[in-house]
Each structure stands twice: as structure tokens, then as C-alpha cells.
Amino acid sequence: MAQWLSPCKSAITAALRPKIIHSHGFSTTTSRRIMETTGFTENQLTVREAVSAICSQFPNTYWQEKDQLEQDPKEFHAALAKDGWLGIALPEEHGGSGLGISEATMMMQTITESGAGMAGAQSIHANVYATQPLARFGNREQLENTIPNIISGKWRTCFGVTEPNTGLDTLRLKTTATKLGDGGYSVTGQKIWITCAQVARKMMLLARTTPLEEVQKPSEGLSLFCIDLDRDAAGLDMRKIKKMGGRAVDANEVFFDGYRIGPETLIGAENQGFKIILHGMNAERCLLAGEALGLGYAALAKAAAYARERVVFQRPIGMNQSIAHPLADAYMKLEAAKLATYHAARLYDSSRSDKTIRQDAVGVAANSAKYLAAEAAFTACERAVMTHGGMGYAMEYDVERYLRECLVPRIAPVSREMIMNYISEKVLQLPRSY
């Protein structure tokens, strides 16, 4: 393990020493981890232990309050940044830990599983995956200036791809970046569902630099930029979206109207942006799968604890198979999705050095994992609420928050239906339906 200790010495060295993790229990029951950890690497288990120690400083009451007041969990973000965890999957030469998506997925799962839920994960999500294309294709100035500031927590970032009029049809997005005489660009268009834009200093922006009608393929003519979000500059407006779950982190519509960005903001080659962001898409699917798993395990642990302690008709309700069997079924679904998730993460990491691993195989594994984990999480969260009965509707028991948040990995960053389209086409060789 010595090869990865230096970048985060304080965090990881401490993680390797015996410690007592002070657990803040759930609102009415003691926290109990139920995921089987056999088969994980020492690195993954060390990450799980160390991140759990940080998460234990933020009890469920912290997340309840942030959710209800719609307040950014800046203290949580700062705590993770302090020990270098935001750079977990970034190169050591840029201040990162040099670990893989396998370890980053474990970190994100540990966060949601701690009770932080999707809000906790989303507060750092883009900082982990959106920086992957930058780390691989950025120039020296971008790497030396931007990445260390993101890892340290000084700057936060967001990912600007989704648009209201194109949705998942990314190749036909309408935001344009028009070249100016000084080499910079003028950006005009609209992005939507941009997480953490209110608190972000940087945005990874995908925009069209060559009109669609002038390219041979729709995948051409898009460029990726790492831009400043200057709220005082002309041509930028952001509007917060009121939403059902994950209220502690903001989601936004972002409007550009002749917003000026410099030539130094371009990442990689002009018109090659779609190929560049593909580098981060499979990684994000792995991270989302881990986040969904953690949420599902957290909900299921709550449900099992309640079923053991809640007595009706002079017996704990967990004795009733109508309670026990749905929970057992939910556990097995989570365990199966866990295997798919970490298989995909392992493939992603191995493909960097093993050229025999095809990228389409990584894509199939990552998309399948995201689908299965999201479905398993939904099952666990819904059954957790039903196990609690009327109290499942109460904020203090947390499961209502988990249920609201578990819809996120089912919808984003790609829907269940589009994943099934992808598997139908790529694996089963069925005709493309879109």
C-alpha cells in the first residue's frame, strides 16, 4: 500500500492505525452495517473506515436540518477536503491520491450509507468525476492551477452538460461557444439541473463550437471548457430549482447570454469535447451505483432495526414473514447489485493499463451496475418506509428522506430506459430505437 500513502498521508496513515469510530446512531436505533465486505481489497476497506470516521461527525440530525432548510453542507465538504479525499481518483502529481474509481466508488457508497444520503454524495460528486477529463486532457496551466484548488476545497466545481430542450440527446445540445477575435469565446445558451452551481467557482462546460449542420457526425463540433462562474460578469444568470429530494444541495438553471470566456478555458482540442467527456461518463455511472447502494443499505438497516424493536400484538413485527421476506429480498438485490458495481469499477480501472479490456465492455458493465444499483436502492427505500408504517412518513426516522432521494440514481445521469436501449443495441445487437 506504500505506493499511495504520500498524497493523503494524514488521512490514510491515520486510517491504518487502530481507532474508535464514534457512531451517531439513527434517530431511534443504533446504526448497524449490513453489507458483506468479504472480497474487497485492503485499499477499499481502508477508505471505507477512514471516510466513515469523517461521516460519523455528521449525524442524521445534521442532514435532516440541511434538507429542511435547503442549506449547503459546506462543513461536510470542508471535512472531506481537509484530509484530501476530494482528490481520491486524481493523479499524485497534481496533489491527488492516485487511487482508482474502485476506491472512489467505495467512498461515495460510504457517504450515502452513513446517513448523509444523496445530498452528502452530491455535495462532492462533481469534484470527483467531472475532474477526470480535466486531469487527462487539460494543459499544464489548467492542471497546476485548477485541480489543486478543487482538491483542497478552495474551489468547487459543477458539470454543465444537460439542457432543457435536448435532455439525453447530448449530441444536439444548443449552447454555443462562438470564437472571438482574441481567441476567447462568447457563450450563449441554457443548462439545467446543474448541481452545486450556486456554490461552484468552476464549471466544466460542454458547448457547440461548430454548427451541427457543418459537421459530418453529431459527435463532432462540441468542445469542453473549464470556465469561471463569475456572478458579477455580464451574460450569466442562475436560478435555483425547488426539488423533491437532496434539498441540501442546489440544482439550477444556468443561462448564458454572450458570456465571455478566455482561450485558456478550452480543455483538449476544439471540437473534440464529446470524446473527452466520454472519459468521465463510465466513471460517473460507477460512482452513482455506489451512491445508490449506500442509500439502499442505510434504508434497509433502519428497517431491520425497527422491525426488531417495534412490538405489535405482543411480538416484534420482524417475526412476521410479510415484513421479513421483503426485507430479505431487498438485501439480496443490494448484494447482487454490489457485485455488479465493483466489477464495473474494477474493469474501468484495469482498462487504463490493460488494453485487452474493450471500452464497450466497460460501458456495458458500468451502465448495468448503475441500473441494478438504482433499482435495488429503490426497492430497499420503499420497503423501509412501509416497514415503519406511519412513522416511515415522519422526518425524524430518515427513511422518507431516503425514499425521496433514491429516485435520483434512477433518473440521472441517464434514465433506466436509455440504459436498456444501450444494452439492447450493444449486447443483444437489436436495432437501435432512438
From TrEMBL:
<protein>
    <recommendedName>
        <fullName>Acyl-CoA dehydrogenase</fullName>
    </recommendedName>
</protein>
<comment type="similarity">
    <text>Belongs to the acyl-CoA dehydrogenase family.</text>
</comment>
<feature type="domain" description="Acyl-CoA oxidase/dehydrogenase middle">
    <location>
        <begin position="158"/>
        <end position="257"/>
    </location>
</feature>
<dbReference type="InterPro" id="IPR037069">
    <property type="entry name" value="AcylCoA_DH/ox_N_sf"/>
</dbReference>
<dbReference type="InterPro" id="IPR046373">
    <property type="entry name" value="Acyl-CoA_Oxase/DH_mid-dom_sf"/>
</dbReference>
<feature type="domain" description="Acyl-CoA dehydrogenase/oxidase C-terminal">
    <location>
        <begin position="271"/>
        <end position="427"/>
    </location>
</feature>
<dbReference type="InterPro" id="IPR006091">
    <property type="entry name" value="Acyl-CoA_Oxase/DH_mid-dom"/>
</dbReference>
<dbReference type="Pfam" id="PF02771">
    <property type="entry name" value="Acyl-CoA_dh_N"/>
</dbReference>
<dbReference type="InterPro" id="IPR013786">
    <property type="entry name" value="AcylCoA_DH/ox_N"/>
</dbReference>
<dbReference type="InterPro" id="IPR009075">
    <property type="entry name" value="AcylCo_DH/oxidase_C"/>
</dbReference>
<feature type="domain" description="Acyl-CoA dehydrogenase/oxidase N-terminal">
    <location>
        <begin position="41"/>
        <end position="154"/>
    </location>
</feature>
<dbReference type="GO" id="GO:0005886">
    <property type="term" value="C:plasma membrane"/>
</dbReference>
<dbReference type="Pfam" id="PF00441">
    <property type="entry name" value="Acyl-CoA_dh_1"/>
</dbReference>
<dbReference type="InterPro" id="IPR036250">
    <property type="entry name" value="AcylCo_DH-like_C"/>
</dbReference>
<dbReference type="Pfam" id="PF02770">
    <property type="entry name" value="Acyl-CoA_dh_M"/>
</dbReference>
<dbReference type="GO" id="GO:0050660">
    <property type="term" value="F:flavin adenine dinucleotide binding"/>
</dbReference>
<keyword id="KW-0285">Flavoprotein</keyword>
<keyword id="KW-0274">FAD</keyword>
<dbReference type="InterPro" id="IPR009100">
    <property type="entry name" value="AcylCoA_DH/oxidase_NM_dom_sf"/>
</dbReference>
<dbReference type="GO" id="GO:0003995">
    <property type="term" value="F:acyl-CoA dehydrogenase activity"/>
</dbReference>
<keyword id="KW-0560">Oxidoreductase</keyword>
